[in-house]
């Protein structure tokens, strides 16, 4: 199979969240399984800086206000092929893939990501002058590529498309007066099209015009069909689920997350020898200016946004400190959340440390040092931190939502709570503290967590089965097909 994988992030070069990790790991797992998969990515400055030599292989036409551009090709050291959309006026800017160095999205994000989507459609149609390779399936990720399946349909192409929702809360919504500038037919501005409460939604376009829709965990696939977590698209998601076209496929964990060999950890350990973990905990406490302690260390590595529920942490932190607990917090995000956590740390500076920013090495060290990892998310499509934490022996204390519910075994490899409140979090923390007080129970739970495996090969098998089903080829992996058949789409279809 030949698959074009469209993404706005790729962790080797640039990432703003979990999408970057998925885009770097899933295609590699698919490639190992024999899929000819190639990645399409905007050529941001950091991408150009890290990519090395870029070969210009094709030119791409524009449409309406979308300017023409060139297509570059690079290969990673392990042989993964990336196509780069070279449009300097759109991408050669500082900041994140979505906004400038300061708060706020780029005002022309509609043009920036319509350019990405149009490039995907041109490659998919096999009309990219200078490029001999043509995919037989298009896999688009999140709203930045959402117009790609739509452009294909509007142009009369019938290439199978798969659209993956990583977080339905981010939809790429723009004013309806952008239709003509983006080359969108007026007839498409309809409930059965791109219209979303009298505005234009890139994510809805991707969902509506794709053949198959996936999301990043089975529980989240069910949740986005509900009014509470569907973010206004629950009706459309219910329809797609009833058609059997909505599948939840759990993300995996990169193999680099191994506490016995991680080069970012000054002390190594495994499930049978935890002495290195204890040494790392002492080192992290010293580095963060926390008082020496034999009590539990609660780690938080997170984007600091409302979704993550960190306001609940501020409500329970004092009680946990009084019971001997300490906190190591690392994150970057909303100014209000940063201010809240900063005040919390200043008020308990001997027991609560807050590092405002993100550093990969420090994230790994905090998880490696911690006894528990707090994730009181209001919703969590999949989550990677809870998988990383278990691998590093930090038992997650998390809300039973999305991928958290799918990857944490309550009272076995972590602690789940359902009530979205400080009281719910506090009760789960008390259960965790009781377990910590029983060394046999706690060490058994820690070892069970460290032995969990969240393999990308499992996800790749399910995606390959979905690709083959979309293309109309026989699915050779019976187990993968069975997993698809028992996905939330099957359950919802039965209910419908």
UniProtKB/TrEMBL annotation:
Catalyzed reaction equations: [(1->4)-alpha-D-glucosyl](n) + ADP-alpha-D-glucose = [(1->4)-alpha-D-glucosyl](n+1) + ADP + H(+)
Class of the enzyme per the UniProt entry, highest EC level: transferase
Residue sites binding ADP-alpha-D-glucose per the record: 15
GO biological process: glycogen biosynthetic process
A Pfam cross-reference name: Glyco_transf_5
SUPFAM superfamilies noted in UniProt: UDP-Glycosyltransferase/glycogen phosphorylase
Record family assignment: Belongs to the glycosyltransferase 1 family. Bacterial/plant glycogen synthase subfamily.
Protein name: Glycogen synthase
Organism: Reyranella soli
């Amino acid at each position: 199979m030949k698959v074009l994988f469209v993404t706005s992030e790729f962790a080797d070069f640039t990432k703003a969240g979990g999408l970057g990790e998925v885009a770097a790991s899933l295609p590699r797992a698919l490639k190992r399984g024999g899929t000819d998969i190639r990645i399409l990515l905007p050529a941001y400055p950091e991408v150009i800086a890290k990519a090395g030599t870029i070969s210009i292989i094709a030119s791409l036409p524009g449409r309406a206000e979308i300017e023409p551009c060139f297509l570059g090709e690079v290969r990673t050291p392990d042989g993964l092929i990336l196509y780069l959309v070279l449009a300097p006026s759109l991408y050669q800017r500082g900041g994140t893939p979505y906004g400038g160095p300061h708060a706020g999205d780029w005002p022309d994000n509609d043009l920036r990501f319509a350019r990405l989507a149009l490039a995907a459609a041109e490659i998919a149609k096999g009309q990219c002058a200078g490029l001999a390779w043509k995919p037989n399936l298009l896999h688009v990720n999140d709203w930045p590529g959402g117009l790609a399946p739509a452009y294909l349909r509007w142009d009369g192409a019938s290439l199978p498309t798969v659209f993956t929702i990583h977080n339905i809360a981010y939809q790429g919504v723009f004013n309806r007066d952008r239709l003509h500038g983006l080359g969108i037919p007026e007839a498409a501005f309809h409930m059965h099209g791109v219209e979303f409460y009298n505005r234009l939604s890139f994510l809805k376009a991707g969902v509506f015009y794709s053949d198959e829709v996936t999301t990043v965990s089975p529980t989240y696939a069910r949740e986005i069909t509900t009014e509470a977590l569907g973010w206004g698209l629950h009706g459309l998601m219910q329809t797609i689920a009833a058609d059997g076209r909505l599948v939840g496929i759990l993300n995996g964990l990169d193999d680099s997350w191994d506490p016995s060999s991680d080069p970012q950890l000054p002390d190594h350990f495994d499930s049978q020898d935890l002495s290195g973990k204890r040494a790392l905990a002492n080192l992290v406490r010293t580095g963060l200016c926390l008082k020496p302690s034999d009590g539990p260390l609660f780690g938080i590595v997170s984007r600091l946004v409302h979704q993550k529920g960190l306001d609940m942490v501020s409500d329970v932190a004092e009680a946990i400190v009084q019971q001997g607990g300490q906190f190591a917090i690392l994150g970057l995000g909303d100014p209000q959340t940063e201010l809240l956590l900063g005040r919390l740390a200043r008020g308990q500076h001997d027991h609560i440390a807050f590092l405002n920013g993100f550093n990969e090495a420090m994230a790994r060290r905090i998880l490696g040092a911690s006894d528990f990892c707090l994730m009181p998310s209001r919703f969590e499509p999949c989550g990677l931190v809870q998988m990383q934490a278990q691998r590093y022996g930090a038992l997650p204390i998390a809300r039973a939502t999305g991928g958290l519910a799918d990857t944490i075994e309550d009272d076995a490899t972590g602690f789940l709570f359902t009530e979205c409140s400080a009281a719910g979090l506090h009760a789960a923390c008390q259960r965790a503290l009781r377990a910590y007080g029983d060394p046999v129970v706690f060490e058994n739970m820690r070892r069970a967590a460290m032995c969990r495996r969240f393999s990308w090969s499992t996800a790749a098998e399910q995606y390959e089965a979905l690709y083959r089903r979309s293309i109309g080829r026989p699915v050779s992996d019976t187990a993968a097909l069975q997993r698809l058949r028992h996905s939330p789409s099957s359950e919802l279809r039965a209910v419908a």
